[in-house]
Model the fold of this input.
Amino acid sequence: MAGTEAKDALGITEGAMDTDPRVGLRAVAALRRLVERLEALQVDNARRHGWSWEEIGTALGVSRQAVHKKHARR
Done:
């Protein structure tokens, strides 16, 4: 993750702790999008390194079927 993206992530994380629900909920939605992006990047990375769907699923705490269904079509 580039430096700017890391700073953005920190700002989003702080926003998720805001007492204003509008700010907090927007931050939670942004964090959800960030997590999805990071997961896709790391699944692609693992596949390039020869990891099986089983290994990836175990690392993510889900079944191999779930991770395959989510990421195999990209």
Q: What stands out?
A: DSSP finds four helices and no strands in the chain. The two ends are 20 Å apart (CA to CA). The mean pLDDT is 91.
